Amino acid sequence: xxxxxAGGGMVVExxxxxxxxxxxxxxxxxxxxxxxxxxxxxxxxxxxVVYPDLPGRDLPLHELTGGPGLSAHLGASLAALHEIxxxxxxxxxxxYSAQECRTRLLAELDLMAQTGRIxxxxxxxWEEALEDVRAWRFRPTFVHGDLAPERVxxxxxxxxxxxxxxxxxxxxxxxxxxxxxxxxxxxAVESVLEAYAYHRGERAEQMVLARAQLLSELALGRWLxxxxxxxxxxxxxxxxxxxxxxxxxxxGAAPIVTG
Length: 259
Hints:
Blueprint: H1 4-26, E1 38-41, E2 47-50, E3 57-58, H2 70-82, H3 86-89, H4 98-114, H5 120-131, E4 141-143, E5 152-154, E6 159-162, E7 169-171, H6 175-183, H7 186-200, H8 208-230, H9 233-249
Antiparallel strand pairs: 1-2, 3-5, 4-7, 5-6
């Protein structure tokens, strides 16, 4: 750890990984997780956590294709992640109800609207999705919370390991699908979601895809808020450009929540 906060986060993650190892022993996951073997004292104070190295390479997100193989196994892996017994991990990570997830997003939307830098039609689109109660009736699950290609280690056709659980919580499973909808090829997303729904079975609720779409769009607003918060004009300009592109893309499109 390079900061006191990072050191505290590592200790929390160590406790979570111990709980996940317990869950894995009861219902084996289709991928590896880090299994801490101990701590190493640092000369400057604090401790580093020691893990065995995990196999695989970063997920080649933009090279994913549809059909069986890596995309399908990724969907199955995400389903398994969301089927972890929340009672096993609830003592070590934050737990949010469906209503709390929605309330937190509404608060973020208010901050985004206050910037005056997001097209009114985009804000209305997001507000309508957040106000449609049909989308917010879901059973909270275990959520990784910060998935990205470098945290999903793969070989040619399988997910070998998932790493970095510092943002893990119990909440909306759509959080772990939004990054794929935003960046993966469309045919690959279809295969991921098909495998995800198959492996979750009756527990896969219908509106998770709509919420994932909403979250993928809200990520642009979050990037804008981040740029404004740190005073970085490059980040702010990039976010505004992406939000302008989004406004064009969704002009005349169906609402996020339909049916």
